[in-house]
Protein: Adenosine deaminase
Organism: Actibacterium atlanticum
Amino acid sequence: MKSLPKVELHTHLEGAAPPAFIRGLAQEKGMDISGVFAPDGGYAFKDFWHFLKVYEAATSTLTTPEDYHRLTLAVLEESAAHGVIYTESFMSPDFCGGRDLSAWREYLHAIQEAAAQAEAQMGIILRAVVTCVRHFGPEKARETALCAAETAGDFITGFGMGGDEQSGKQGDFAWAFDCAREAGLRLTTHAGEWGGPQSIRDALDDLRVERIGHGVRAIEDDALVDHLAEREIVLEVCPGSNIALGLYPDWQDHPIERLRERGVKVTISTDDPPFFHTTMTREYDRLADAFGWNEDSFRDFNIVAAHAAFCDTETRARVLKKLEQTDD
Ligand code: HPA
Ligand code: ZN
């Protein structure tokens, strides 16, 4: 499955940082973040809320645009090695310059330079979804949305929200999402992972998003599953992340297959791959084992993902062509 071309819609840029890369940065800067790592060198956390703390501690080592340039290259190299041809990554002005617009522009410039280099060298295409961080609150989300709106374009194509899904309500962030929509950005938000089905309804009604990050807990509400299928809402499903965080006990118990059977548009992503000890290849291998999916099934998922990608039509056509090229 490693060489199969893949489209990935849901990763967090800092969450894809190899632990050795973060450890190296901490050493260079004389920062002590030893609490972040397990004895085996991987990231250590005990549940989702602890994960968010460890994520922010690891991210604190990324202090300059140059750090993000190196990070972006390292992340894209790893993704390309697993066959990813197009990837959308969540990026946060909160972590890149503290929501200051001119600082954010500098970080963005460095990230885009790295993306251009990776595309020229490895063919992988990166697009960005600016995310606000839910537990930082609606006020900060407004500032984040203003940064996103000012830099919307070919590279920054979407706006979303990550962070602690149990902090506040989706609707508290409506101003930020309205601002992003008015700037032409496409919208997604994390829902239906740590929040139940109502959090997905709130995301659709109050934030008017067209994709949902995770959304898997829709399976607990039959009417909602039908609604998602009818409205062709795309779910950015990250099965390995859900299993690593204990949302489901095992791959066979994961609802992705039941959602697909019921006609919901599902796609496959890694979320924060080194944190959850996963890669796109591992996701595909485990899903093939659990549900008997084969290369044709995965091609179908990738075509759904390419159509749901927040890129322009020319980019989408290029991606679809690459997916088709594997046809004999
Ligand atoms: N979920 C929610 N928020 C996040 C994540 C995640 O996996 N990674 C970084 N912020
Ligand atoms: Zn996520």
Q: What stands out?
A: Residues 12, 15, 55, 162-163, 190, 271-272 surround hypoxanthine (ligand 1) (CB under 6 Å). The longest helix spans residues 101-122. The beta strands are 6-12, 84-91, 125-133, 156-162, 186-191, 211-214, 234-237, 265-268.
